[in-house]
Amino acid sequence: MASTTSRLAIAIAGAGIGGLSAGLCLARAGHRVEIFERAPALREIGAGLQITPNGAAVFERLGLGPALDKVAIRARAVRPTDGRSGRGIARFALDGGPYPYRFLHRAALIDLLADAARDAGARIVTGQAVRAARPETGDLIFETGEPTRHELILAADGLRSVLRPLITDEAARFTGQVAWRAVLNGVEAAPEARIWMLPGRHVVTYPLPGGRLNLVAVREQSGWAPEGWDHAEDPARLRAVFADAAPELRALLDRIEATRLWGLFRHEVPERWHVGRLALLGDAAHPTLPFLAQGANLAIEDGWVLARALEAAPDLDAALGLYAQRRGPRVRRAIAAAQANARNYHFSGVSRRIAHLALGAIDRVAPGRFTARMDWLHGHDVTRNWPAIARMTGHSSLE
Ligand SMILES: Cc1cc2nc3c(=O)[nH]c(=O)nc-3n(C[C@H](O)[C@H](O)[C@H](O)COP(=O)(O)OP(=O)(O)OC[C@H]3O[C@@H](n4cnc5c(N)ncnc54)[C@H](O)[C@@H]3O)c2cc1C
Question: Is 81 in the pocket of ligand 1 (CB under 6 A)?
């Protein structure tokens, strides 16, 4: 029995990592997919991205592992480091699991996903900003041009989604954290993520292909005054915030020529993820602090789960309900864990010494404990357990 949701006309608002990977999964599953992107061309901010094994599991099932390896570095370890002294506190392996942990540039991932989505039959329309939707009819309304009608609309238009208010009135709020991002050229570094921890602040560095180094610096801040969510920032200000950092870290900060500062915002994960023919995906549904490298990985998982839910459920409403039911608990747990890392990375005083000693002890006595503690996150494979459901429906075309 094929489900009634097997060949839908689907519109996706937003061609970010969430929209493109969902478009790929849905087109592979036989749906007619159109992706509408506001920007005049597909682009991502100039920064790196960590694709953790749970995101890699989806790409592996889509056959994209080898293509990813061409544009990524396989990570070997994460190294928590005392950001003041430069002393390594611990080294936890990242390369022991069934799927790789990778570092890559966002633009490379966007290109790869867009090509794969087009190859699967998806149409990507750039320069087409979505303004509104009618969930009951599936009409999508643009800033310019005629409305279009679809059987399903996905709001993958990010944290500032224009469509989310049709489902929830939860507004984004400032989290009390700001982040600077920069990419340094001509830096050869080991395939490791280093987390440089200082009181109230931290910096994450990891290598990118082509001898580049991605750098994200975060600090706690009581308010966010500027209009908008990010703005260009004088690197001297960033250097001043980390003036007490270890010489090795300051030497990296000294090399930054241009940086932007982001206010980190999020909203609660809504109870309902859909109304009528409109559903949320990625940051539009569940923005998270970036301290666990999960926002994009969770969005990638969303696309696979949604495609499978459409195969498994008897009608659209049931499928969208199943999708939210499968995703809700997992994204909430990941968001809470990222929030806890904000505290863990930013300890000061005695707590800081105790936390560093504890990390060092885990590394010496039970290095496998870190991997075991992360297994619920990195070891989770959303592509598992679905084949049985697909077999039950007699319909599985995703791979
Ligand atoms: C400092 C930092 C570091 C991070 N590092 C990682 C990491 O290592 N790993 C990880 O998994 N996550 C990371 N994240 C999180 C990750 O970047 C986001 O969770 C992810 O990009 C969300 O993808 P998305 O497609 O849902 O939304 P977005 O990336 O925001 O994409 C939304 C798309 O929709 C388009 N759009 C918006 N409005 C409209 C409209 N009205 N009409 C049409 N199109 C529209 C936008 O132009 C954009 O292309 C990090 C975040 C930050 C801030």
Answer: no
